[in-house]
Design the sequence.
């Protein structure tokens, strides 16, 4: 695997055949590895980006505290079959004077967008930049971030981008909690409380799910008409914010 830090070097790398891109913010776990493996199976070359994108964090969010371990991430990516790991500096993607942004208006304003108003502007912009830099045939995202997948798919359609967006099923820990880099923030006691989230979503019903989340700080529990339709929720446990969803591939019981 080759680690690359500049756009110029990444563009100069020779590649043959199809290219799969996995955009990430690092702190790799089994969910990321599932994306790498999916990309490896379906493409001739795999590029992963590692960039903690400041544009998708709000002013009081965890940008400074977000977990970072570049050496460990590089080892995991290489073992999973990544060919090129793109780790740009902030100034490489957002040079001085940067002022062009991408907004997916309706999809970007609901659910997560209501509680994190500038979040999807940052996501859409950095993804479009990465698509333009890497020129992949396919890009891979986790189903846990269902709204992010929907926003990126809408952007790809609306801007006539020639690539396929692939969604990979949510990977969960043995106790049912969806894997997330932010899970490391949870204390043992908070993690016990967090297990109410996946259990509640398994009801496949927003009212029943909300009832099961009684006692937690709930931001939303809603059915979202993405592709596929999901029951999505966001909760706060202590200082940690968690999101999760289940695919509604059958009628609620």
Sequence:
């Amino acid at each position: 695997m080759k680690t690359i830090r500049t756009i110029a070097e990444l563009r100069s790398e020779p590649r043959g055949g199809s290219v799969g891109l996995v955009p990430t913010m690092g702190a790799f776990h089994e969910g990321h590895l599932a994306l790498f493996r999916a990309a490896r199976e379906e493409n001739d070359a795999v590029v992963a980006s590692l960039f903690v994108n400041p544009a998708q964090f709000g002013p009081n969010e965890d940008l400074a505290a977000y977990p970072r371990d570049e050496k460990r991430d590089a080892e995991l990516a290489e073992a999973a079959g990544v060919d090129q790991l793109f780790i740009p500096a902030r100034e490489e993607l957002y040079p001085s004077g940067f002022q062009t942004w991408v907004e997916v208006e309706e999809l970007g304003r609901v659910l997560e967008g209501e509680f994190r108003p500038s979040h999807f502007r940052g996501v859409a912009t950095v993804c479009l930049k990465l698509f333009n830099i890497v020129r992949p045939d396919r890009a891979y995202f986790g189903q846990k971030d269902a709204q992010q997948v929907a926003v990126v798919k809408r952007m790809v359609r609306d801007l006539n981008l020639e690539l396929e967006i692939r969604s990979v099923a949510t990977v969960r820990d043995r106790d049912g909690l969806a894997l997330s880099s932010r899970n490391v923030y949870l204390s043992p006691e908070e993690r016990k409380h967090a297990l109410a989230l996946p259990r509640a979503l398994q009801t496949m019903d927003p009212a029943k799910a909300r009832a099961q989340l009684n006692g937690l700080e709930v931001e939303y529990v809603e059915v979202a008409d993405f592709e596929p339709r999901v029951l999505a929720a966001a909760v706060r446990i202590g200082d940690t914010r968690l999101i999760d969803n289940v695919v509604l591939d059958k009628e609620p019981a």
Observations:
- Residues 172 and 179 are 5 Å apart (CA to CA).
- The mean pLDDT is 96.
